[in-house]
Protein: Vomeronasal type-1 receptor
Amino acid sequence: MDSKQVFKAAGFLILAVISIPANLLVCSAFLHSLLTEGKLVTTDIILCNLAFANLMVTFTRGIPQTLTAFGYRNLFDDIGCKLSLVCFRIFRGLSISLTCLLSAYQAIVISPASSKLALLKLQIPQYLMHTIAFLYVLWYALNVDVVLYSVSSLMNNTVPPYTFNLEYCFVIYPDYVILYIEGLISLFSDLVFILLMTVMSVYILLLLYYHSKKVKSIRSSDRKSGQTPETKASRAVVTLVILYDIFYGIDNAIWVYSLTVVRVVPLLSDIRIFFATLYTSVCPIVVTVTNPKVRNKVKLVRPERPVHTADSSLQAI
Structure:
């Protein structure tokens, strides 16, 4: 393995090692809460689905990229390539849209009662599962092209023009017009959700700023624990959105450049996919640190250290 392959393998392996257990932890924490408490609040349902989407992004893209970096090439046949790539696109889109939904719902939760957004506070929980099901259908419809144009191998080992070379699969577009149209559809769908979640996050920050100004005069001994759960949750959501904007901003910038060249080199695809999957590792860490339910479940499974007393020490001697 040359140095480029070593860095690629190490990078994707680290992401997978972090992403899989961290997202499984988040999912299992919320499922445990569902079994013990009988229900999940709206935010928890969104976060659980987000963790599942992140987990599937790792399985459908992070793991194949890691295996490819270690020298494994023929991972899939044509059907396997189509399933792997379309599932990656669907769950990547779900990761974007669920983060957007999370930021929108958090903005609605902390909005003043007089706000027009407050009217949606009861409607979103009622139609939440319908919304998530619609997002699955939406992202499949937006990415059906990858089913049509992806293959596992090339004719005569020659990479034709307008091809995305993933090393284990290839997406071959017939001509530049179709590539450009599909690229714009993908870019536009990402930008709609990214802009919406950014607007919601700015709205959340403004609400938190005005709220902090109102309570500025009531600072007392409660400085460390004076933040409300809504404030803490809002800051966690804003953190996720900022990270998402950074990672997927780089992803989409490389995607736009890819639309301007005839052949996309594998290194460029690797960098783009690295940033596209980086969020799947960072997101569950932020959720674990900031969400009380997940944090409490981590404390429950943490083994207790034995307490050594004077008597036990004497007995040991």
Observations:
- The CA atoms of residues 90 and 138 lie 9 Å apart.
- The longest strand covers residues 163-165.
- The radius of gyration is 23 Å.
- DSSP finds eleven helices and four strands in the chain.
